[in-house]
Amino acid sequence: MTPPSPATSESRAIPGGRVITKLLVANRGEIAVRIIRTAHAMDIATVAVFSDPDAGAPFVAAADEAVRLPGATPAETYLRGDLVIDAALRTGADAVHPGYGFLSENADFARACADAGIVFVGPPPQAIEAMGSKTRAKELMGAAGVPVLPGLIVDDELLAEPDRLAKAAAELDFPVLVKAVHGGGGRGMRIVRDARALADAVAGARREAASAFGDGTVFLEHYVSRPRHVEVQVFADAHGDVVHLFERECSIQRRYQKIIEEAPSVAVDEHLRERLGSAAVAAAAAIGYVGAGTVEFVLDRGGRFFFLEVNTRLQVEHPVTELVTGLDLVRAQLLVAQGAPLPAELRHARITGHAVEARLYAEDVPAGFLPATGTIHRFDVPASDGVRVDSGVADGSVVGVHYDPMLAKVIAHGATRDEAIRRLARALAGTRVHGVTTNRELLVAVLRDEAFRSGDIDTGYLDRHDAVAMGSPVTSADVLATHLVAAALTAAAERRANGILPSAPPGWRNVPTSPQQAAFTLSGPGSSQRGAGRQVEVSYRWRADRVDVTVDGRARDVVVHRLDGEQADLTVDGVRSTVRVHRVGPEVYLDGRGGSTVARETPRFVEPGARAAAGSLTAPMPGTVVRVAVERGAAVTAGEVVLVLEAMKMEHAVTAPHDGVLRALDVRIGQTVDGGHVLAVITPGDTPTGAEEQAVAVAGTAR
What we know:
By secondary structure, the protein is an alpha+beta fold. 27% of the residues lie in helices and 31% in strands. The strands form nine sheets. The chain has an eight-stranded antiparallel sheet. Helix 15 packs antiparallel against helix 16. The longest helix has 21 residues. It is globular and about 85 Å long. The two termini are 39 Å apart. The N terminus and C terminus are likely disordered.
């Protein structure tokens, strides 16, 4: 057991308080790195806990010590409070910081920490329990004078009577929102606009809530049309003092999960800010809150606000509050957990400037925000003034199926909202994430959209602005040509560097009239709207003082200024730019001239491989089958749900791409499948062909 670190003078000054000398961080990814950073600044030793997939993660290396939690899934690892407490006791940690998610809002875990003599860096168990049920929370808030929306619990009796359920929902006034009683993050949430869709929405929300939170109870409440999502940061100490640290705007969401947050909100003036803050303080006081928490509201277009929930933990988006106030909220959490009164800087906080945060996710926007997996070959956010990066990944990190797909948060601060937005857009546009599909293009498009910049936003923003189109920009033909010329010429330079004739120019051939040929198949950013799998031919021939280049048969005027295996300084058709080139096997990642392209260098001779039969319905990502909606032999129509997969605790419906008959079905409920696994075959014929049955029989093996 490692001896505890010396207590800080700051900690020693707490009268009657308990000094934290070693902190176990019961979380992973970027929030674990962020907590460790502040703990070290306070001279507090740190302990990480990690699952098997996270053994090589940056947060593990950042901690002073680390303890393995055997297994891969959250249920086996980060949700095992007994294993976390055992790790704290084994390493001599006297406090646990839960971050957000996992055990952060688990009252039983907070109570178990206290029973083990360990400080839980968070609110008391009774405060967590009070807010753990959204319906009970609404009752408490209503009694405290906080505006709330009427709601209705969907119990088994009500669920068994669809007509009664529909009538009860109609009394709330459609549209209604189906929400999980426990948990958050948009899981177990559905908008229902009429009675016909109610039963299926409730059933799907119950399944998703049960998977994510262990409790499938849901409730209904009236849905406010075009609301803003505004939340207030609160902070309280153990001596009964509560303050608010202003509001955050979190209206840019996809699938009910935030992707862009900012502070302050453009919709909140000083009068509304005071009303929101007073309501949030009343909410925290009503439950005897201690530490950092967030009171969330919906704000309608008339300036009325209604209570949503209290998140009894640090929020993902806390950095925007830190940047506009100059505070370190984790430091304040640790001080208050040791018994200190609210630090003076919290009592006298002021807003300075504006901050905007973007969540960088591994997800495929054009495919409906499906989570993406893979190995990150390169992760690089360019350093720039006013930009902060909270990241949980690095080169070589593996993004798997078990956890939330957020890779990093990029946050910008400026004197004005416009300056902060422009700084963030520029930083993201220059960010390189190679190896996994991300939502980077969508984030940049939103930040550069005139409606967003004018502040004309609400939670339906992405529905109205076609997120798929925004997240799939078309790279211009000139930029694409520059990228592929760079790919072809740097490959030639690299081959030349490893060749046998050092005096020969790159790409030299002993038949000078015959040009070199390179073929690339486009994928990833810059090519999705041009058609997946599009092939582009590049030919080039070196002369004494220049290089002749054609791209897809069109001659390009190319001047090479500098060339090596990793970058090309080129002038193409009169425009000079530098393209950074990163190769991983046959994949080539190209960044420069204001865009990015991913291409696969096509081999000249392709070995024939097995192909799925026509009509095959494949898994869009790795996941677990949680529902099969159609039986083999049944007729289906285009868009009809065939089955439902769960990945990263979210449900994803797999639908029929066209009308037909389900001829083959090779999955069962509970089965885990790989991305690309043939799930079923839908054909217009009367009987399945041998090829169809064989395709299903031999397609990927379930894990």
